[in-house]
Design a protein that fits this description.
107 residues, alpha+beta, TATA-Binding Protein
Length: 107
Amino acid sequence: MVAIKLGCPYYCRVTLTSQARVATDRPGRYIKQLCDHLGRKIDTEYDDTRGRVTLAAGTCVLTAEDGALLMRASADDAESLARLEDVVGRHLERFGTRDELTVTWVR
């Protein structure tokens, strides 16, 4: 998905986005775990139902839903988006090994 920010006649910023919906009975737990772990090196913020991970590559917003963790990633270019997807997705899958969590990003 591509979103174009309008308003400037000379320059339009294109933001690439992707999302993943991961089935889990404990989305809030995984938001906390991801943000606590990644927050040792990068900017994160979270509460019981939402989180945000901000890398130099882009931002990933985490939302707890009934029976799922929704992750929305955004970055300025395809390479940065792929890096962001890899970092967040790989960590979640590692933390969720017992629950057999699988992250599949959709652009």
